[in-house]
Structure formats: C-alpha cells, structure tokens
Amino acid sequence: MGIGREIFGDALPVAERYAAFLAQAGVERGLIGPREADRLWERHLVNCAVVSTAIPEDAEVVDIGSGAGLPGIVLAIVRPDLRITLLEPLLRRTTFLTECVELLDLRNVEVRRARAEDVTKEFSVDVATARAVAPLERLATWALPLLRPGGELLALKGERAAAELEEAETVLKRFGVRSTELLQVGHGMVDPPTTLVRVVAGRAEVVGRRQRAPRRAKGSRKRSS
C-alpha cells in the first residue's frame, strides 16, 4: 500500500474502491481468477499504473480488449488528463466496465462494446494499450489502424516480449511502422518491472495532430523497424 500511495496519490481511495470491486464482483463474474484477489495491487494495479509514465499528457487512449479494466481503468484513475475508451466485445465485460466507471465516477472514460477491427474508421487516437489480449503479430493488426501517424501501441508483455516483437516483424513492416522498442517501466515500484512493447505508427489515411514526445522510461531499447 505504500507504493500504491506513492503512485496514486490523492486518487488512492478511488484505486482502493476499484480493487475491492475487482476482488468481489470481478472474481464472482470470472473476470479475474480467485487466486488473484490477494495480489491485486502488485500484480495488477501497480503493474498497470506504471504504464502511465510512457504516455504523453492529454493523450487520447483506446484500451483494446479491456476485460476487467486492466490497464484502462487504472490509467484513468492515475491520469485524469487522459481520455480513455475501453474497447471490449463481450457484453458481460462491458457491463462490468460500465459499473466500474459509474462506481468510481471516472468522467474521462467511455466504454464501447466492439471489436477493434470493426471500428477502424471511427478511431484516430494517440495511444493504444493492451494487456494479455493476443500475440503482438495479431494485436498489431487491430491496434495500428486505430492510431494517428506517430501514435503508439503500448502492449504489456511478459518474458516473450522480445520474441513476439521479432515474430511480428513482417506484419509491422507491412503497416509501415516508424520504430519499435522494448522498455521496462516501474523500476523500484513493481518487481519485476512492467515490460512494454512500444510500436510507433507510420503514415495513415487520417492525418492527426502533432504528437507530443513521450517521456523516455528507464531501461528502454529502441530500434528502427
């Protein structure tokens, strides 16, 4: 909880209400496993909250396959400057997410029931996030069409992050991405640090606004695609 207070600051009570809702309704409805209830903070909330350090100010964000709201709900709590759409195709999950948004009074969040591939003409955002949704090779085909030129996919990944990035190389080249990067965020706050794959979108049919440069996280490795 000490780390939680450091990360969430004045929003800690909101994060606590979300954790309590996850531990009860989230488990009852099968959105998280029963064994996860005792380790929600370090494994889920803090793990997702530190992703906020890689997102520019005032960004428009779409959280693909939001599920129980990880990382989308957490990012909305810790970063009220973000405008976040929780994109989720399953009704029982969008019902849960809508209840979360109302319970926590998150005015910077919209819940949308849809698949990413079905709304490509409706979205043009700065950042797309995803956690435990699909391998990067498939996730990129859903996320990149939703991004403005220079927008970023931030995919939370585990030990296979580097391997997934290599496996997705052909797909990423086909989309004309500007660059790819492996980075770790949350050093000293979560152990192990959260691993992200950052993919920067290239040109697109929709011309977006000028992008702000995100803060560089410690431990990052960048390469051109």
From TrEMBL:
Underlying gene: rsmG
GO cellular component, one term: cytosol
Annotated organism of origin: Actinomadura darangshiensis
Top enzyme class: transferase
EC number in record: 2.1.1.-
Keyword Nucleotide-binding included in the entry's annotation: no
UniProt keyword list: Cytoplasm, Methyltransferase, rRNA processing, S-adenosyl-L-methionine, Transferase
A UniProt-annotated Pfam family: GidB
The protein's role, per its UniProt record: Specifically methylates the N7 position of a guanine in 16S rRNA.
Keyword Cytoplasm listed: yes
An example Gene Ontology molecular-function term: rRNA (guanine-N7-)-methyltransferase activity
Protein family membership: Belongs to the methyltransferase superfamily. RNA methyltransferase RsmG family.
This protein's name: Ribosomal RNA small subunit methyltransferase G
